[in-house]
Model the fold of this input.
Amino acid sequence: MPGRKAIWLNKQTLSESAAEALRKAILNGQLKPGEWLRQEALAEEMGISQMTVRDALNQLVGEGLAVRIPYKGVRVVSLDVEDVENICAMRGLLEGLAAKLAAENITPEELEQMRKLLPETTISAERESVERARDANREFHEIAIRACRRPFLIRLLKQLWDWLGPYMLYGVAFQVTEEAREEMLKYSERDLERHVQLLEALEARDGEQARSVVEKYMQEVWESTKLFLQRLESSQSMTRTR
Done:
């Protein structure tokens, strides 16, 4: 029928939009690791059909951002500390390779985009600045990653970034103590230094230096994120025992 294809396309567009909204909510911590994604409740909240929500959830399951539990439903993927460590290690190796390749291929326009983003990757004590810095930080790295010009490597790194999103330092620091927030400001200064070093290596077309900076950066990110995750786990345990 003439209208059937149009209806199918509209449905697909809506499910993609729903999946993107849920994906963003997972990555920014609005939907917490392990939280149940109830089809009926989400359909009511988002003003769409349960079938559209089901299609969106299937996309998230396929991307590894959610898991389907037989006879129970779908929940946001929940990683333990060891999982996060392993993903950080993989991201360090693969993003280091991407940085080395990017040094050969990155354009002056892309370098300028990265330079303009540098000030936005730092934070202040306000939560809004943390959210801006998180987004700018990802965009900064994604420009360098895309410059490797290796589509499969780019897709792999996007998956690793998405998995780590809810667990990264900027995502968990505002769930713990005031002391932890002060430490986060210190780590932000360190991250800015690494970003400057990466940009300089790319501008110099020094692939080995770019790789080294990224690998060192990811090791530092893991070490600081581990501390925050352990504190968050301890804080949640204390809350449950009260």
Q: What stands out?
A: DSSP finds ten helices and two strands in the chain. The first helix runs from residue 2 to 27. Residues 1-11 have pLDDT under 50 and may be disordered.
